Prior knowledge:
This protein is an all-alpha fold. The protein is about 80% helix and about 0% strand. It has ten helices and no strands. It is globular, with a radius of gyration of 19 Å. It starts with a helix and ends with a helix.
Amino acid sequence: MMNFKSILVFTYVIYAVMMMYISRFGFNMYLNNLGTLFLLSLMILDIRKNVLSRIGFWGLWMFSVLHSIGACWLYSFVPYNEWITSLFNFDLDLFFGFQRNQYDRLVHFLFGLLLLQATKDLITKKFNFTPVQALFVAFLCIQVFSMLYEFFEWGISVFASERISENYNGQQGDVWDAHKDMALAMLGSIFSFLFLRIGVRYTKENKLVKIIK
C-alpha cells in the first residue's frame, strides 16, 4: 500500500506529463523541464531514504508542481493573468500595473518559502545541529542555492544561443533579473524562517511544560 509520499509522487508524474502534453513550446519546453526531472528524482530518492518531514516533502512537492507550470510555458508565457481574470473577473496585471509576466518572480519567492523546511530536514539528518542551528544554516543554504542557479543561467547565456538562453532564462529584457530573483528567494526564506522559528520555540515550550508536569 502506497504511503502519502508515494501518492504525491504518482500524482505529480501524471500532472507533469499532462502539462508537457498540452504545452506548445516543443524543444524549449523539454529543456526547461530538466528541472522537473531533477525535482522528481529528489522526491523518489526521499521515498527510499525517508529523510524529509511531512512539511518538508509537501513543500518540495508544491514547489515542483508550480515549477512544472512555469517550465511548460517557458515561465515568460504562463497565462496566469488570463486564468485569474477568467475565474475571478479580476485583472491582476492591470491592478498592479505589471509590465512583464511575473510568474518567474513568484516561483523564485516560493523557492525560499517552500524549500526551507526540506533543506533543514537534510541538514538535521547529516549534521549534529540543534533545530535552531539547522534552521539558520538552511536559510543560508537557500541563498547559496539561489545564487548558484543564477550562475547556471549566466552560463546558459554565455554558451547557448540567444534564442535558447532567452527562452530558458526568461529575463524579459530586465537587466536586474538575477538580482531580483535572488532577493525574492531571500524574502521567501525569511518568511519561512520566521514561521519555522516560531514552531521550534513552540515545541521547546511544550517539552518544558511536559517536564514540569
